[in-house]
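Re: beginner question about structure tokens

> Can someone show what the tokenized structure looks like for a real chain? I only ever see the sequence side.

Sure, here's an example I had lying around. Input first:
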Amino acid sequence: MRTTIAALLSGLVFGIGLAVSGMINPAKVLAFLDFGGIPAGVWDPSLAFVMAGALVVAAVGFRLARGRERPLDGGSFAEPPRRDIDARLVAGALMFGAGWGLVGFCPGPAIASLAYGAGKSFLFVAAMLAGMALHRYAMPAPRAAVNAAD
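And the corresponding structure tokens:
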């Protein structure tokens, strides 16, 4: 129960941070990603400060966690089963980046934006869930991930 409450509070703080920073506004995200495209000169660098702040918070969190034997919830730290860069990782990163650049949403901000009831948020999340389902049934899980789940 303690882990569930911690996850809920973390998600709530994350969602509020996304809303306050403007990350759930696709127009703001697209303006950040426009480094002089057409029309030129609409680049909005403010999200770089949001990302820099997030990196500082994450670095402090990782530094504090490094000195612990186990997480505060009593479980264990999870290491990724693989660290290599393969074609699936590169393809996934390219699709993620292309989707983010085309519509200005990525999964976290899209889910947080559902609270505002915008139709495009619901459309994006529905398409994201459909893509996840398609991937799950069309692509076999890599062997390392299957073994890690056991």
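Each token stands for a local structural state, so reading them left to right follows the chain. The chain has a mean pLDDT of 84.
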